[in-house]
Amino acid sequence: MWAATAFGKGNLSEHSERDRFEQTVLPHLDAAYNLARWLTRDDQDAEDVVQEACLRAFRFLGGFRGGDSRAWLLTIVRHTCYTWLQKNREHELVSFDEELDGIESVANPEEVLLDSVDQQSLRKALEELPVEFREVIILRELEGLSYKEIGVVAGLSLGTVMSRLARARKRLQQSLARLAVKEA
Amino acid sequence: MNCQETQNLIHAYLDGELDLVKSLEIEQHLQGCQACSQTHKNHQALRVAIREGAPYFKSPARLRKRIQASVNQTSQARTMPRAMSWRWVGVMASLALIVILTWNLARGLSAPSTSDLLAQQVVASHVRSLMPNHLVDVVSSDEHTVKPWFDGKLDFSPPVQDLASAGFPLVGGRLDYVDNRPVAALVYQHSPHFINVFIWPSPGSPNTNVVAGMRQGYYLAHWTSAGMTFWAVTDLNQSEFQQFVRLAQSQVTPPPSP
Lengths: 184, 258
Prior knowledge:
The complex is a heterodimer of chains A (184) and B (258).
Chain A: H1 6-24, H2 29-40, H3 43-60, H4 69-88, H5 119-128, H6 131-142, H7 147-154, H8 158-183
Chain B: H1 3-14, H2 20-32, H3 34-53, H4 61-83, H5 85-103, H6 114-129, E1 138-139, H7 143-149, E2 170-178, E3 181-190, E4 193-201, E5 211-215, E6 218-225, E7 228-234, H8 238-250
Antiparallel strand pairs in B: 1-2, 2-3, 3-4, 4-7, 5-6, 6-7
Helix pairs in contact in B: 1-2, 1-3, 2-3
């Protein structure tokens, strides 16, 4: 029998732990960076956050019991981003009232048909979204996560994921409309 | 389905999160409702705009290198205290020994940190054996050649088995000197890697489970079985070494009773 002695386990698993890290975490590095980059809106900050998140992931690897490794890593990246924002840009984490900021019940006349949105305006509109809205849009549209996965990553119920996406999209449309008017 | 319900579910519909029945109900409503249909088109257009127009930031190559470097550092830093645990076991063993010796002075037992000293010797012997022309004294994959070769050279007959069927062919045997006595060294091969198994008698010792560890990048394991002490050492990877040790340990047959 292979005895799981204190030193046997520790020393022998050093290499396999690194292998596991390479297999579990590194394949999702782009996803991690993309999320961090959109949340911090800065190349260097995103790199720092992702590096720290990956080190945390390495430390917590023993606790990861398989399954969706991308959602697992993104959860850590998101958490690291929020901690970083809290420390460096607290003003960006202004909380908003979920109830007051409700979904419009009927089609909104402000909404314009987005036949052609120029990329500059789109990026600006996305970056100006409050971070809670920005993250659900990035996770849904760029990362293609399901509501369930977004719920895991952002710690939200399915219902909240849906309503937050709805509000995020509405806000985006409004600010794109504003930007279009400004340009015209 | 009315407008209110449709507006409430339109995002879930857009995101493919609705079941078939609800989706069909929404589609039916959209066909007959200009306003809701417009909302749906707007959301669709927005989605296309984001997917096609918003940049996806790919991780720069240097970030991957940075992460790998810091993970290596962390993992080495974590290994340090674990490397100490060989000594820790020595400390535990010596504490146990003090207790035992106090209670039973009549019993002569080995000195503390024996396993640490042995591990050192075993790794040294392994490294020496890998130097040119040091690996084996008798070259044979046949256990019936290797085992008798030790006759007359050692005061015991080591159990010798070929594990070729499991991917660890016996390469041969060698006389070595460990723990202040001549011992049998069996050499096994696995692809380009060699495994040294050192065997010597430890009469009266009870069978023990495998204790494993690492030293200078080599994996080590030792156990006692059928009155013999076994030390295995290799540069093989961990999982294959574990497999080997399991085999080597399970196939030892107790010596025939006199």
